[in-house]
Amino acid sequence: QVQLVESGGGLVQAGGSLKLSCAASGRTFSSSFMGWFRQAAGKEREFVAAISRSGTGTNYAASVKGRFTIFRDNAKNTVDLQMNSLKPEDTAVYYCAASFQTWGSHSNSRSQYDYWGQGTQVTVSS
Q1: 10-residue mean pLDDT series, the chain (126 residues)
Q2: How far separated are the first and last CA of the chain, in Å rounded?
Q3: Ranges assigned E (strand) in 27-118
């Protein structure tokens, strides 16, 4: 079992920055690759970013590449998402997810993840 708890969401103006954090407990954190997804009102949950077990491999959605950065700290059992140059279209509930499957070309797929956090709301105002 893995428990994931997100924090850091809130209200920010367009052009601003926000950092989300995800704290993991239970099964060994370093054995999983991690991802961030988001779901806007009335929309499907979509991939944002992923990071491999070692932290050396990353994957980003085209819509956030160059603006968002994913980090992990295996000693602290945390994964963070630094969000810069925020836009109103970034408004969504953001979810942290963990996978004990094989890292590869499908880290953007929801089916690759075994555990999910409860989500944290990010609202970007115009």
Answers
A1: 95 98 89 96 97 96 98 95 98 97 93 97 97
A2: 40
A3: 33-39, 46-51, 58-60, 68-73, 78-83, 92-99, 115-116
